[in-house]
Amino acid sequence: MDQQSKIEILKDLIRIDTANDHEAVAAQYLQRLFKQYGIDSQLVKYADGRSNIVAELKADQPGPVLILAGHLDTVAFDKDNWDHDPLGAEEVDGKIYGRGSADMKSGLAGMAIALIEMKEAGFPKKGTLRFFGTVGEELGAMGSLQLTKQGLVHDADAILVGEPTGGNIVYANNGSIGYTVKSYGKSVHSSMPAKGINAVANLARFFAAEQHAFDDAKESPVLGPVVHSVNVFQGGSQLNIIPDYAEVQGNIRPIPECDNDECIARIQKVVDKLNEEKGMKLKLEVQFSFRPVANDPQGDFTKLVAQARQDAFGKQPDLMVIHGASDASNYILDVQCPMLLLGAGEWNMAHQVNEYVSVDNYLKVNQTYENVVKNFLN
């Protein structure tokens, strides 16, 4: 496939609005693209208008399974704040602008093209090359969880996730836990607060206690300490009524040494201890819980990917860690294998106004994926 065709595929994907929904349109586009090259694929419906796509190439010889995994959705955008149409895929000075250009339609397109070109080149020589395009990664990662529960990752020997890393290798990332603590009180006139129970005041006590919930937690030599914060606080209706309800929403970034179960248990312990006191009624609810992923930076697959990247870029990649979660946090629920993040576009471009990807970076990442396939499934 010539370079301009690769660029047009990326532009086509950017022009499809998949902001937190409607991923089926992008999945159908990729299905038609694969069909042109004789590659069968299946759409896995999550909800109306929302479908994952799965495709694979299987060699006659047995061998390892490599998954190239991307997500179809993007975060939302306000068109009025952009200098370039977020759905326009405008190419200016070697950059393609648009929502998802970095996060992560460039990675998705590069992986889809790798699947096509590897089939044309007679790969894989052994084993299986599998491609995922998932729904909802930005708000809950529902698609990757669905594919994991359907058993589509259990046989994986290695997974590449195409998040924007500039072509560098992210070998470890935190998980993410979203939770709500609800406080129930008793509403009375503010002139007689002693006759009521102030749900806001009780919740403020949780907020103070939560800040020390991880003081003695183990730290990760790779990812550092658990990161946690309370970011939403809501309660009360007007200033002369003692509030009978309030809630906070918090976020925790777990690490392997203090994993999701332990993090949730620590917050629950804070709630339980406060509930022992008269007038306290707090309830913890967990909205989502994504696992941390940590790989050996000197592992065989990391070295293979690093060499593939060097061959494409002409220089060694940086080995990095990030504190965000990805679809890998769901894949790790069913398989223990190397899971690395590598994609086009810079991490600091994700979710930004005037998001863009460098054409050169995009094409070199596509070549990196193909080099990985040749080296891993030969």
Features of the shown structure:
378 residues; alpha/beta; Aminopeptidase; Alpha-Beta Plaits; six-stranded mixed β-sheet; four-stranded antiparallel β-sheet; 9 helices
Q: Strands, helices and their partners?
A:
Layout: H1 3-15, H2 23-36, E1 41-47, E2 50-58, E3 61-71, E4 91-92, E5 95-97, H3 101-120, E6 126-134, H4 142-149, E7 158-161, E8 169-173, E9 176-184, H5 199-210, E10 227-235, E11 245-253, H6 260-275, E12 282-290, E13 293-294, H7 300-313, E14 319-322, H8 328-331, E15 339-341, E16 356-358, H9 359-376
Parallel strand pairs: 3-6, 3-7, 7-15, 8-14
Antiparallel strand pairs: 1-2, 2-6, 4-5, 5-16, 8-13, 9-11, 9-12, 10-11
Helix pairs in contact: 1-3, 3-9, 5-6, 7-9
Short précis:
The protein contains 9 helices and 16 strands.
Q: Judging from the principal axes of the Cα atoms, what is the shape?
A: elongated
The end-to-end span amounts to 21 Å
- Supply the number of structural domains: 2
Query: Major sheet, described briefly?
Result: 6 strands, mixed
Question: Helical stretch count?
Answer: 9
The number of distinct β-strands equals 16
- Average pLDDT: 97
CATH architecture of the largest domain: 3-Layer(aba) Sandwich
CATH topology type of the largest domain: Aminopeptidase
Helix content: 25-40%
**From N to C, what is the helix and strand string?**
HHEEEEEHEHEEEHEEHEEHEHEEH
Rounded to an integer, what's the Rg over CA atoms? 23 Å
Strand order of the largest sheet: 1-2-6-3-7-15
CATH superfamily of the largest domain: Zn peptidases
